[in-house]
Amino acid sequence: MTKASDVFTLKNNNQVEVTFIARGGQITSIKVPNANGEMADVVIGYDTVEGALAGDTYFGAICGRYANRIVKGQFELNGQEFQLDTNNGPNHLHGGVDGFNLRTWEVEKVDLPQFAQAYKLSLVSSDGDQGYPGELTTIVTYGLTEDNELVIEYDAVSDKDTIINLTSHAYFNLDGAGTGTIANHQLTINADKFTPIDGEIGTVTGEVAEVKDTAMDFITTKAIGEALTADCPQVKLVDGIDHNFVINGYDGMVRLAARLEGPSSGRAMEVYTDQPGVQIYTGSHFDGTEIGKQGKPIEKWAGVALETQIFPDSPNKAHFPEAVLKAGEHYRHTCVYKFI
Predict the structure, then answer these.
(1) Which of 169, 185, 243, 333 is catalytic?
(2) Which CATH number describes the domain made up of 7-339?
(3) Is the alpha carbon torsion for 121, 335, 290, 11 positive or negative?
(4) Could you say which residues bind beta-D-galactose here (predicted)?
């Protein structure tokens, strides 16, 4: 049996090293070189396993069964009403009070030809867990390639019709954790549209809006800080960005969703996915009270999460991408973080 504190590491021949723990499949460290070979840990978090277990449980974790928010924790499926935990004001967030980020996953090393190293993480969620129907068996593969790609592959199957939306919740700072904010990071998002949020609802309204002429326009590369300080109602609602972007050309195939660059370090990261959306969150709730890596306070905007996923509240929005998983069918989701 895997223990919550068990540590696992993936390495390739380019010195890239990814470390995670069994609790939540939580990615605790990603060390990558820049063009000069200088190494840095590019995910924010804690220096020790003990710190990770005691700290913010979303850092680097697998979130589910339904990542992001469901309004009032309610949805209807096959004519039946379901009530989930409400753990984010009036809404359900990231699977509830005991979501997948808090579960100890079974972990085993696997040999797959496409990866330098890989691990398989597995978890069984019982029928009725956090209010969800169906016993859900989930397998997540973490694979590291020799092309410096961290590939996350999700596969899940349920014995009853259910809803699902899994994601990984690492926060990136390509200059290195503890080096300051991501305000100077350059961001490009392959999205002409986004889903605005409403302060009273606490999540998306159901509208799909153009990014053009808003702070959410990252079609052309710009500094994240330009959006963070914009006189924009959507930014002011969350003191930054916590929005779902609609990936252009979605057809269920893996495509480029976003590119992040740390100009101080010269490191860059591309994000690829077969999902319809990517949630960009700039960590506005960090307030410096927690001590993170290098003994530095985790300050507001210390890192940015790029979470590939189905849209928030999709079970209640008929025009949003489908979040229903039929009994016996497989949910599959690929996310690639490629370091350059």
Answers:
(1) 169
(2) 2.70.98.10
(3) positive
(4) 68-69, 169-171, 242
Any binding-site annotation on 333? no
Structure letter (DSSP) for residue 211: -
Please state the pTM of the whole predicted model: 0.98
Question: Which pLDDT belongs to residue 20?
Answer: 99
pLDDT at residue number 248: 98
Residue 124, CB half-sphere, CA atoms under 13 Å: how many?
A: 4
- Residue 141 · residue 123 · CB < 8 Å: no
Catalytic annotation on 243? no
pLDDT for position 189? 98
Q: Active-site residue 307, yes or no?
A: yes
**pLDDT computed for residue 216 by the predictor:** 98
- Whether the Cβ atoms of residue 234 and residue 199 lie closer than 8 Å to each other: no
Which residue do the tokens 């924009």 mark? 232
Q: Is 242 annotated as a binding residue?
A: yes
Residue ranges in the chain whose pLDDT is less than 70: none
pLDDT at 221: 98
Instruction: Say if residue 244 carries a ligand binding annotation.
Output: no
Q: What is the DSSP letter of 219?
A: S
Check if the beta carbon of residue 269 is closer than 8 Å to that of residue 277. Answer: no
User: Is residue 169 marked as binding?
Assistant: yes
pLDDT number for residue 134: 98
Tokens of 231: 């006189």
